[in-house]
Design goal:
single chain; 172 residues; alpha/beta
């Protein structure tokens, strides 16, 4: 784990996360990977390819499961949840791009349990920015970052699939 000031090399951070997962989960039974839209889904796609889990890849949109749904309303870019494998008794790697309050992770776990009862869920995040409001911690993380409350970490994917991670002012 690293603590890194900006600029971030998202591709190098991805490699750190990939190696952590490859080493720790090589013998995990019934392994599957599920990414949280959008940044976590991008990461999950690449991880599934690099870990040989293409047939065990799913995506979650937590928009309707957020505990602040009534306050924030519906995100304008809701994507479908796609889980095309049996969740029961599976070891699920839940992937998010940036872990912050823990509320998105809680919502994603609720979605997973609508599909079945996994044997185990582990959390992988490209970056952990702290500021937790719920007792959620990543099992795998490439970088820990300290940011001011008005800042956000934003993962983007270029047309060629290249990832970039930047700090921006959060106007939410």
């Amino acid at each position: 784990m690293l603590t890194s000031p900006e600029p971030f090399d998202a591709e190098a951070l991805y490699q750190v996360l990939l190696e952590q997962l490859r080493c720790a989960l090589a013998d995990a039974p019934d392994l599957a990977i599920v990414g949280i839209h959008s940044g976590g889904a991008w990461l999950a796609e690449r991880l599934a390819l690099d870990l040989g889990l293409r047939g065990r890849l799913g995506f979650i949109d937590v928009s309707f499961y957020r505990d602040d749904y009534a306050k924030k309303g519906l995100h304008p870019d809701v994507k479908p949840t796609q889980i095309g494998f049996d969740v029961d008794r599976a070891t699920i790697v839940l992937v998010d791009d940036v872990l912050y309050t823990g509320r998105t992770t809680r919502a994603a776990i609720n979605v997973l349990f609508d599909y079945g009862r996994p044997a185990r869920i582990v959390l992988a995040a490209l970056a952990d920015r702290g500021g937790r409001e719920l007792p959620v911690a990543p099992d795998f993380v490439a970088v820990h970052v300290s940011l001011a409350a008005h800042q956000a970490l934003v993962l983007r994917r270029g047309a060629d699939g290249t990832l970039s991670l930047t700090t921006e002012d959060d106007h939410a």
